[in-house]
Write a structure and sequence with these properties.
Length: 416
């Protein structure tokens, strides 16, 4: 191997690395004269290079030993790239239509080489800000979530398989600790990393810190996040972890992956759609009031859960006599009992989804990492009003989630 110890790559050293790595050099036909390399890592953590040549292309993603958006004062394990590569391969086997293929992984360099999602693919969040409709989004995301969550759970796997994989992903503790901090802790206390649209939301930030019921609910969700190894979850499934065209949906960046509660992935995706809904008034203008687009977002929220529910339970029914050890056929072979088990499981998962979704919205308003949906609203007072409406709904959802019986109830409450 050309690089025997970790060092951050730049464009020149990346070319040398590609030359020394046969699987990568073959992707571009070993033609280095016309290579175009562009660093596009606009996230919080990593370097991301797009490599394009006349004979082929790929993406190189390198994990840094600190949080990129903060700097070396916030150390972060490079090992996250190992778990990202593992999750991409595992989820890619289960849902190859919606996960980019991994070509190469170098643990020493914390470096992943994978398929380049060529234009017109864009980050979903940017599409939502621009008001673009994606007719297959709910269909594709429900495919991805139902397959990855079902097939890595005890509904399909033996306890021996499950515990082996849980143990493997327990090593991603650094990223889990980061999630615990930024989602379940920092927004509910004074933290140097918190910020918000001040002074407009100063009172709202204090109200969150003083809300005892909110803190009780977030503590319960934190406990589930830390303790419940339900399935191999993406761990950061917001709308910037999805790349789209009108006909293609690709899930990227599972560096936070571990065995956790299924509702965390579902909640992240649905919660970010809710957040996008409340941001739309800030992007409206005389030429487009965004009302019809808001209705599309609401339909997508409904369809995402309803299609997931349908597909997940269909997989469960298909494999009910299979190797899964959560509900042994010898005990749960009564159709009436099976239905009761499914109803309870899906009801609990639905309420988890709403809770985690609400927590995701709150952290994007008061925590360390904000989102383009709100941040691109230039007028601070208008941005704050959109955020306040999202916050109001998120607090309701977090506190009253067990009272919602269907996703239609949730959508009705959003409209109200």
């Amino acid at each position: 191997m050309a690089f025997s110890e970790f060092r951050p790559l730049d464009e020149q050293s990346l070319i040398e690395y590609i030359k020394a790595t046969p699987v990568l050099s073959a992707k571009i036909g070993k033609n280095y004269d016309d290579l175009k390399i562009k660093e596009v890592g606009d996230g919080n953590l990593n370097f991301v290079y797009i490599v394009v040549g006349s004979a082929g292309s790929f993406v190189m993603k390198q994990a840094l030993p600190y949080v990129r958006s903060i700097g070396e004062s916030w150390p972060m394990t490079k090992e996250r790239s190992y778990f990202e590569a593992l999750a991409l391969k595992e989820h890619g086997q289960l849902c190859p239509e919606h996960v980019p293929e991994v070509y190469h992984f170098d643990r020493t360099m914390s470096l992943i080489g994978m398929r380049y999602l060529e234009p017109p693919h864009i980050i979903l969040r940017k599409g939502l800000v621009a008001g673009i409709e994606y007719p297959y989004l709910a269909e594709h995301m429900s495919d991805y979530m139902s397959r990855t969550l079902f097939y890595t759970s005890l509904l399909y796997r033996t306890t021996t398989q499950h515990k082996h994989d849980v143990a493997e992903f327990c090593g991603n503790v650094g990223l889990c600790r980061l999630t615990e901090q930024v989602i379940f802790s920092d927004p509910y206390k004074v933290s140097q990393y918190n910020h918000w649209t001040s002074p407009y939301l100063d009172d709202d930030a204090e109200a969150v810190r003083e809300d005892n019921i909110l803190k009780l609910e977030i503590a319960e969700l934190k406990s589930k996040f830390c303790e419940r190894a339900q399935a191999l979850i993406h761990g950061d499934l917001h709308t910037s972890s999805v790349m789209v065209t009108p006909y293609s949906t690709q899930v990227i960046d599972p560096e936070f992956a571990f065995y956790g509660p299924m509702g965390f992935d579902l909640g992240a995706f649905i919660g970010n759609l809710i957040l996008a809904y409340f941001a739309q008034d800030g992007h409206a203008d005389p030429a487009n009031d965004r009302k019809s687009y808001k209705e599309w977002i609401l339909r997508t929220i409904e369809d995402s859960w309803n299609l997931f529910n349908k597909k997940f339970t269909a997989l469960w029914n298909e494999h009910k006599d299979g190797p899964g050890e959560a509900y042994l056929p010898a005990i749960y072979n009564n159709p009436e009992l099976q239905q009761l088990v499914q109803q309870k499981f899906m009801k609990d998962l639905f309420h988890d989804t709403l809770g985690f979704g609400a927590a995701k919205i709150i952290r994007r308003i008061f925590g360390v990492a904000h989102v383009e949906d709100f941040e691109s609203i230039k007028e601070a007072s208008k941005r704050a009003e959109c955020e306040r409406q999202a916050l109001k709904f998120a607090k309701l959802l977090l506190k009253e989630r067990r009272g919602f019986q269907s996703i239609n109830d949730v959508v009705s409450a959003i409209r109200a």
